[in-house]
Amino acid sequence: MLQEVNIGRRSGFQSANIEHYRWLIGDELIDEILDIAKALKGVKICQINSTAYGGGVAELLPRIIPILSALGIDCDWRLLHAPSEFFTVSKAFHNALQSKPHELTQNEKDLYSQVNEQSAKLLENSYDVFIIHDPQPAAIRAFAGPRDAKWIWRCHIDSSHPDEQVSQFLRPFLEEYDAMVFTMPQFVLPELRTKRVAFIAPAIDPLATKNMELPLEICKRAMADSGIDPERPVLLQVSRFDPWKNPLGVVRAYKLVKKKIPHVQLVFIGAMAGDDPEGWVLMDQVEEASVQDPDIFIFTNLGGVGNAEVNMFQRGCDVVIQNSIREGFGLVVSEAFWKEKPVVAGKAGGIPMQFPEEYHQYLVQDNEEECAEKILHLLTHPGERGSFGRAAREHVRKHFLTPRLVRDELELIKELVN
Ligand code: UDP
């Protein structure tokens, strides 16, 4: 059997009741979900990805699965069974799908196929629907052979300009799926033959510890306890240490801001994901670029910074940065917006759709001067920070909260199993 990620959903059963979102979302969407769920009662879903920790997928599943269970839809979460060297290859594939050129070797193809084949053998037969996330476990479907189930590939990244060798290798595995889900139409892998393609954006959970309401005073105190001066301006980027999130560019933009506002501080919260060996190297580089600057702070999950701290720092900071060059969706943007924080972010992937139309001027294109200029403007215009934050929260409330995601996914599953 493939390793199950036990999220303890039985105990979380009640807290995941979809009714708890009604006051935030309104009746229409919640009633719609209840209707679809009725038609899907008893359906068994298996979600498969490559890590239980770090990154957006590991963030989403623990929130969605208990809601599905509470709706009477059984959903398990299982992990691809892989040795550590596999993740170097799969990260290279991930980057290659996001356009980084890659010289594909026979050894990489063999390792990728072996791991997926072995995981397919370990997969139980008792599910009606398999949802496979991202490229790492994508070939499981092909190796699983004919089964009485529907298969969905959920691609969280922008695969619109992939490396040709890697996309040629992966394409036949992907074309076996009954349906594919991309965050937006612009992300679809070129020349892919699909039986059914759906576009579903991710979402954040307003009831999760990471997003729950917290008094500002407590958030500021937590920051002070971590050595940050809450009385001085704080910039924050929360993301994996990944070249596409461009943390070194954040340091450069911060240094430009600091020339004008010398007491500004920069905080990184960076998770080290289990399937991301590149992270360590980049974190060392960020530390090197920050050495000798006591106003740059770097925290990681390994140092005990978890969801509560992310929440408190997002609430307690002044401006959130998400300096991505390429991005799948960028959950952190919605997380910050939900807390009414202004965000200066890369014009990449799913980030622009999270911005209210009238604040698109805070999207920047891999340009540190521009990024610094936007940050400076926000730091010196508190009124603009407030109105931006409020408009952004409302935009997130309408489009990027969990119930909308649950509805979209259940609708697709209903279409497939019927
Ligand atoms: N995250 C976190 N701690 C960290 C870094 C990231 O909890 O140190 C969370 C972040 O709050 C968000 C998710 O990890 O919920 C990252 O998702 P996103 O879509 O922004 O990026 P991905 O890592 O999937 O590319």
Explain this structure to me?
This protein is α/β, with parallel strands linked by helices. The chain is built from 17 helices and twelve strands. The chain has helices at 9-12, 22-25, 27-39, 56-70, 84-97, 106-121, 140-144, 164-174, 216-225, 247-260, 278-290, 307-316, 331-338, 351-354, 368-380, 382-399, 402-417, and strands spanning 44-49, 74-79, 129-133, 150-155, 179-182, 197-199, 234-238, 265-270, 296-300, 319-322, 343-346, 363-364. The chain has a six-stranded parallel beta sheet with strand order 2-1-3-4-5-6, with helices on one face. Strands 9-8-7-10-11-12 form a six-stranded parallel beta sheet, with helices on both faces. Helix 13 (331-338) links the parallel strand 10 and strand 11 (343-346). The mean pLDDT is 94. Bound molecules: uridine-5'-diphosphate. The site of uridine-5'-diphosphate (UDP) has 19 residues, from helix 4, strand 8, helix 12 and helix 13.
Terminal CA distance: 28 Å
Report the β-strand fraction as a percent range: 5-15%
Q: If helices are DSSP runs of H or I spanning 4 or more residues, what is the number of helices?
A: 17
Q: Strand order within the widest sheet?
A: 2-1-3-4-5-6
Low-confidence stretches: none
Total beta strand runs: 12
Major beta sheet summary? 6 strands, parallel
Overall pLDDT metric = 94
Task: Give the ligands present.
Answer: uridine-5'-diphosphate
Helix content range: 40-55%
Which class best fits the helix and strand makeup? Answer: alpha/beta
Shape: globular
What's the SSE pattern?
HHHEHEHHEHEHEEHEHEHEHEHEHEHHH
Radius of gyration: 21 Å
